[in-house]
Amino acid sequence: MTEALTAQGGPPRWRAVAGPAVGLAGAALAAVAGWSSPLLLVGGRVVPGWAVSAVLLAAALALRGVLRRTGRRHPAGTATLLGRWAGWVRWGGLLLIAVAALGTTLGAADDLVSSARYHVLRPVGPGGCTAVVRETSFLVIGTGEAYAVGRTGVALGTAGSWTVDDGYRPFDAGTYALRWGPDGTGVLQISGRATDPVLGGGLVDVDCG
Fold it and tell me: Which H helix or E strand runs over 120?
């Protein structure tokens, strides 16, 4: 069969269609990561959602390019197959790439403008649950979000958030407490100062269950 395809002057048919399909799927994953703000913990280091999106997008584009180069010479009948869906796949892929790039850019810009800092809190919970905090400060308001990261190293959403007056950063200052229960659920308490009180959300449940 391989000899027959080679004789027709092209690689196996799947290679001709795999490039656009991989590009579309990769761009979709990157777009989701760029706008849903997941958080990844690798070797004790935090990888924010916008960075996850950037890596997924770059990998998808690179793999798509490789597959397209190996599938340029289409076997007989492939051109008809491609003609039916290549148009919307191409434009759909470009749209997803633009959406992913926009989400990545806005996420990175937000971290930069708000001087975001990520903290991996200790101790780790009994079930391996880890509390990770993103702390920001902009003008006269300090904000933060807590993430519950399980053994997979991925948090798909926040466990809670808070706001502090005057741009105060409780985790930089160490004015917080983390306690774990025997069931692996943690309680994170955020405290301000007399002049920089917590305006809302000073108590967060950290649960990886």
Answer: strand 117-120
pLDDT at 27: 76
Please give the helix or strand (H or E) that residue 93 lies within, else none: helix 78-113
Tell me how many degrees the CA angle 171-175-177 measures, rounded to the nearest 5: 90
Query: Closest by alpha carbon to 158, among 146, 167, 141?
Result: 146
> What pLDDT is stored for residue 72 in this prediction?
54
* Main-chain dihedrals φ then ψ at residue 5, nearest 5 degrees: -65, -40
Question: At 173, which amino acid appears?
Answer: A
Which residue positions in the chain have pLDDT lower than 50? 1-11, 76-81
Q: What predicted TM-score, i.e. pTM, was given to this entire model?
A: 0.75
The pLDDT assigned to 170 comes to 93
Please list, in sequence order, all residues whose beta carbon lies within 8 angstroms of the beta carbon of residue 50, skipping any fewer than 6 positions away: 34, 37, 103, 104, 105, 106, 107, 108, 111
| Cα distance between residue 190 and residue 54, in whole Å | 32
pLDDT for 7 equals 43
Looking up tokens 């869906």 gives 85
Phi/psi at 92 (nearest 5 deg)? -65, -40
In angstroms, the CA 204 to CA 131 distance is 10
